[in-house]
Design a protein that fits this description.
Layout lengths: L5 E7 L12 E5 L6 H9 L17 E6 L3 E5 L10 H17 L3 E9 L6 H12 L4 E6 L6 H15 L5 E4 L8 H18 L2
The protein binds guanosine-5'-diphosphate (GDP).
Length: 200
């Protein structure tokens, strides 16, 4: 999949505006500043597909990207950033919850967390909610270049110990150093394939 053409489709602020295409979707969720835009740009192999945020948490849209028209990468708005105005916080819930809960095209969710800090309260709440909704989850631990090899291993082992037995896969990445990106693509491909089998 690497090198496939990834292009911006649309930004959605209302559930009624979601794309109609019958193709699988992989959603990216995480708190603001976790490295979501950087990962999307790496996956797309371009520098400026998703905006790397200077004002974290500002976008309250769900952004759709098409990968060679075969599936959509779906960038959910980042959560948990204090500077987002209350009005924006209020709109996050219904839009994102509605999408994650009911979307037939949603094949799987990639939940990002910062490997240095482990899951925040909100990350945990999100993971538990996705488990209840039976959405397949890949936990992507970001910015692993900021840890030593030893720290990295300990942090990844801790995540695997907690979440793999609950059915989530765990991958460490560095968008900066282009590490783990192939593994993420492989997981995406697998889950798109199984969605297509279930939804011919
Ligand atoms: P988003 O708000 O989740 O979309 O996060 P961004 O992709 O905008 O990244 C937030 C900040 O983290 C930026 O300053 C990025 O340069 C930095 N960042 C993102 N990924 C990495 C990484 O793999 N390694 C390091 N060291 N910094 C990163």
């Amino acid at each position: 999949m690497t090198g496939a053409r990834v292009t911006f489709v649309k930004g959605v602020v209302r559930l009624s505006d979601l794309p109609r295409a019958h193709i699988p979707e992989i959603a990216f969720s995480g708190r603001s500043n976790v490295g979501k835009s950087s990962l999307l740009n790496r996956l797309a192999g371009v520098r400026a597909l998703a905006r790397v945020s200077r004002t974290p948490g500002k976008t309250q849209e769900i952004n759709f990207y098409s990968a060679a028209d075969r599936f959509h990468l779906v960038d959910l708005p980042g959560y948990g950033y204090a500077r987002v105005p209350d009005s924006a916080k209020k709109s996050w819930g219904p839009l994102v919850e509605g999408y994650l809960e009911d979307r037939k095209q949603l094949a799987a969710v990639i939940q990002l967390l910062d490997l240095r800090h482990g899951p925040t309260e909100l990350d945990r709440a999100m993971i538990e909610w996705l488990e209840v909704k039976k959405r397949p989850i890949l936990l992507v631990a970001t910015k692993q270049d900021k840890l030593t090899r030893q720290e990295r291993k300990a942090a990844l082992d801790a995540l695997a110990g907690e979440f793999e037995r609950r059915g989530a896969a765990v991958v460490g990445v560095s968008s900066l150093r282009n590490e783990g990106i192939e593994q993420v693509w492989k997981w995406i491909e697998e889950h798109c394939r199984s969605w297509r089998k279930r939804n011919p």
